[in-house]
Amino acid sequence: MTAPGRTAGPRPLLNRRLAEFGTTIFAEMSALAVRTGSINLGQGFPDTDGPEEVREAAVRALRDGRGNQYPPGPGVPELRTAIAAHQRDRYGLGFDPDTEVLVTAGATEAIAASLLALVEPGDEVVALEPYYDSYAACIAMAGGTRVPVTLRPREGAYVLDLDELRDAVTDRTRVILLNTPHNPTGTVLGREELAAVAELAAERDLLVVTDEVYEHLVFDGEHTPIATLPGMRERTVTIGSAGKTFSFTGWKVGWVKAC
């Protein structure tokens, strides 16, 4: 077998869109932490498992034969119903669990599926920097161009410059990829900032893909889904994750909500 990056004839073996990407930084840092016996701050997982009652519920489900075989493509109906109920009870957002909720293998698959579904070659995707490294690879696989807007330190926090965001949008922009609460800076965008993003999206007819996997890990202020703002439910794809919420990141349970 020809080594990765080598050619087997007139073209490389790997998709050219992935030429700039190597091993994920999470794999590198986790392996380094194991090798050196260091505390691993390079990947977002806790050092303890989540609630005992959640683990026991999973054990009971396995023993009762629930979820051991292929589920429906959109996900187990009970889980989709629970996700829709969570959005309604927490945020007042109504989603049809049968047509507007999709369960995925973690939020990473949700991000990839959303960008592959919405972005075509030549489209631009504005993303808040620094960002989860899968964003870059997913945008590239979709044939899009990544346009970073950097969160900058100011008075002990990392802040989104709304003028810089507006300047980053061009006639080729298709999606604003929003991450709040933000990984890795911890920034939580406030309602005023989200309103400005919503206004920009409506003005330029943009879609918003919003990664909200840390929605329940907010210590100061509150998390506001941008889909709750006027006119945004119809142009927003919201991504969530059980792994971050319940501290079971290895279970890889994520979801997408969109109309």
How would you portray this structure in words?
With 259 residues, the chain is an alpha/beta fold. The chain is globular. A hairpin with a 2-residue loop joins strand 4 and strand 5. It is 33% helix and 17% strand. The model has no long low-confidence stretch (mean pLDDT 92). The strands form two sheets. Strands 1-9-8-7-6-2-3 form a seven-stranded mixed sheet, with helices on both faces. A two-stranded antiparallel sheet has the order 4-5. The protein is built from eight helices and nine strands. Helix 4 (106-118) packs parallel to helix 5 (134-141).
Please give the number of β-strands. 9
Strands of the largest sheet, in order across it?
1-9-8-7-6-2-3
Tell me, what's the shape? Answer: globular
Straight-line distance between termini: 45 Å
- Counted by DSSP, the helix tally is 8
Strand content: 15-25%
Query: Kindly state the mean pLDDT as a whole number?
Result: 92
Proportion of residues in helical segments: 25-40%
Estimated structural class: alpha/beta
* SSE string, helices as H and strands as E: HHHEHEHEEEHEHEEHE
Task: Indicate the low-confidence ranges by residue numbers.
Answer: none
The major beta sheet can be summarized as: 7 strands, mixed
Rounded to an integer in angstroms, the radius of gyration calculated over CA atoms is: 19 Å
